[in-house]
Amino acid sequence: MIRIYLLEGKAFVWNYADARRIREEHRIVGVLVGALPRKPRQNVRLGLPLELLPEEVRLLLDKGLATLVRSPTSQSLGHGKNQDALVPEKVVAYEQELEENYQEQLRLSAEQKKTMLESLADHITQGRAKKWQRKGEGEEPLQRPAESGSCFVLPRESMMIQLPTERTQIAQEETVDWHVASQLWPYAGQERHEMHYSIFRDLWERGYYVTTGSKFGGDFLVYPGDPMRFHAHYIALCFSKDAPISLCDIISAGRLGTNVKKTVLLCSVEQEGTVAYTSLQWSGMQ
C-alpha cells in the first residue's frame, strides 16, 4: 500500500519505491519538490518528496492503491521530562553509530589502498631503483610499498554518511479519512474538486498522462506518453457546464495554445457524469 503523507492540505510521497511505482505502473507523475543532498543550492534538479495533485491522490485512493496518513508531530513523540530524558540517550546512540561507521570505513579504505599498492609493487620498486641509479647512490634498500602505507589516515570530514528519506525509527501514524473534509484534506465534497477529478480521471482512463497545467495557464497538461519522452498535446481548461465563458477568455486561450503549439481543451462534466470536450485551434483568415 502506497503511503501518502499530508501536510496542510498538500500530499507527499517520501518513499522512492512508491514514487517510481505510481509513475511506471499507474501513470501518475507528480512533481519532485525536495532538494538534492549533494546539490542543495539549485532548483534545476530536484528530489524527494514527490508532491501530488489532489486529483492524483484521489485517483490512487479510489483505486485502493494508497492510504492517507498524518505524520506525527514533534509534540506527539513525548512531553515534558520524559522527552527531555530521552534526548541525551539518542545523542549518545547517534554518536556511537557514527563512530562505528567511521571505523568500518577506515578499515575498508586501508584494505583497498593496501590492495592497490600490492598490485603496483613491482612497478613502484622498479621506478625507485632507476631513480637511485640516476643519482649514483647505488641500490636502494628494498622496501615493500604496502608497508609504507600501513599507517592509513581517513579524515573524518571525508567519511560517507547516510541521509535517510524516511523515518529511521518506527513512529505512530494516524490514518486520515479522505471522505470527510478536514484541515489536512479539505477537498472532500468540494464541487470544483469533484469536477476537476472527473475530468482528470476521464483523461487518465483514455491512456493519457495528466499533470498540472499551471505553467501554461491551464488546469491540466495532457501528454500522449511519459512527460520525460513526449511534449504535451493539450492544455485542459475546466469549466462548469452552465458557467458562461467570456469571448476574451476564449480568444486568450486559443492564442496561448497556438503560441506553445498545443490544442486547448474546454472541459465540462455533463449531468450524466460524462465529460464533454471542445477543442480550440487558432485559424488565420486567408
TrEMBL record:
Its EC number is 4.6.1.16. tRNA splicing endonuclease is a heterotetramer composed of TSEN2, TSEN15, TSEN34/LENG5 and TSEN54. tRNA splicing endonuclease complex also contains proteins of the pre-mRNA 3'-end processing machinery such as CLP1, CPSF1, CPSF4 and CSTF2. CDD domains: tRNA-intron_lyase_C. Constitutes one of the two catalytic subunit of the tRNA-splicing endonuclease complex, a complex responsible for identification and cleavage of the splice sites in pre-tRNA. It cleaves pre-tRNA at the 5'- and 3'-splice sites to release the intron. The products are an intron and two tRNA half-molecules bearing 2',3'-cyclic phosphate and 5'-OH termini. There are no conserved sequences at the splice sites, but the intron is invariably located at the same site in the gene, placing the splice sites an invariant distance from the constant structural features of the tRNA body. One of its GO terms (molecular function) is tRNA-intron lyase activity. This is tRNA-splicing endonuclease subunit Sen34. The active site is at residues 223, 231, 262. It holds the Pfam family TSEN34_N. Residues 128-147 are annotated as: Disordered. It comes from Pseudonaja textilis. The keyword Repeat does not apply. The keyword Nucleus applies. One of its GO terms (biological process) is mRNA processing. InterPro entries: tRNA_endonuc-like_dom_sf (IPR011856), tRNA_intron_Endo_cat-like_sf (IPR036167), tRNA_intron_Endonuc_cat-like (IPR006677), tRNA_splic (IPR006676), TSEN34 (IPR016690), TSEN34_N (IPR059049). The gene is TSEN34. Belongs to the tRNA-intron endonuclease family. Keywords: Lyase, mRNA processing, Nucleus, tRNA processing. One of its GO terms (cellular component) is nucleolus. Residues 194-277 form the tRNA intron endonuclease catalytic domain. It is found in: Nucleus, Nucleolus.
